[in-house]
UniProtKB/TrEMBL annotation:
Belongs to the dUTPase family. Keywords: Hydrolase, Magnesium, Metal-binding, Nucleotide metabolism. This enzyme is involved in nucleotide metabolism: it produces dUMP, the immediate precursor of thymidine nucleotides and it decreases the intracellular concentration of dUTP so that uracil cannot be incorporated into DNA. Coiled coil: none annotated. The lineage of its organism: Bacteria, Bacillati, Actinomycetota, Actinomycetes, Micrococcales. One of its GO terms (molecular function) is dUTP diphosphatase activity. The gene is dut. It catalyses: dUTP + H2O = dUMP + diphosphate + H(+). Its cofactor is Mg(2+). Pathway: Pyrimidine metabolism; dUMP biosynthesis; dUMP from dCTP (dUTP route): step 2/2. It comes from Glutamicibacter protophormiae (Brevibacterium protophormiae). Transmembrane segments: none annotated. Residues 17-147 form the dUTPase-like domain. Its EC number is 3.6.1.23. InterPro entries: dUTPase, dUTPase-like, dUTPase-like_sf, dUTPase_trimeric. This is Deoxyuridine 5'-triphosphate nucleotidohydrolase.
């Protein structure tokens, strides 16, 4: 079992919801829960509150990822995945869920696990404007440049 490497201050905005936790000792993502119940109709998206606010230290970010089981079984994903929780943000973490299923509505009950929160270190860059960039093996090749994508 790995030991936590950072302590994050959390404010529970709904004391009846569980504190985010890791399902397994080696998991990267802690489960986030729905604060409200709702039904996502096919193609519908909704901003779902989680009932928590965090104080991330400077140099860290919270990344909100979809749950793979919800995506695979029901077509539920996060519109802006991963969502970004900046260190300076102190409001409630919200998750923009999307039902990609074309036929079936999906019901979310209060307390359901809806997303995962991954805490990571981040670096801030200084952007230096130049007239040209150093060449690389890839060059300016974008989408599909390695043969993995076809627009046809």
């Amino acid at each position: 079992m790995s030991e936590p490497t950072i302590s994050i201050s959390i404010k529970m905005l709904d004391s009846e919801l569980p504190v985010p936790s890791y399902a397994h000792p080696s998991d990267a993502g802690a489960d986030l829960h729905a604060r409200t119940s709702l039904v996502l109709e096919p193609g519908q998206r909704a901003l779902v509150p989680t009932g928590i606010a965090l104080a991330l230290p400077h140099g860290y970010v919270g990344l909100v990822h979809p749950r793979s089981g919800l995506a695979a079984k029901h077509g539920i994903t996060i519109v802006n995945a991963p969502g970004t929780v900046d260190a300076g943000y102190r409001g409630e973490i919200m998750v923009t869920l999307l039902n990609t299923d074309k036929d079936q509505a999906f019901e979310i009950s209060r307390g359901d696990r809806i997303a995962q929160l991954v805490i990571q270190k981040v670096e801030q860059a200084v952007f230096v404007q130049v007239d040209s960039l150093e060449d690389s093996a890839r060059g300016t090749g974008g989408f599909g440049s390695t043969g993995g994508f076809s627009a046809n």
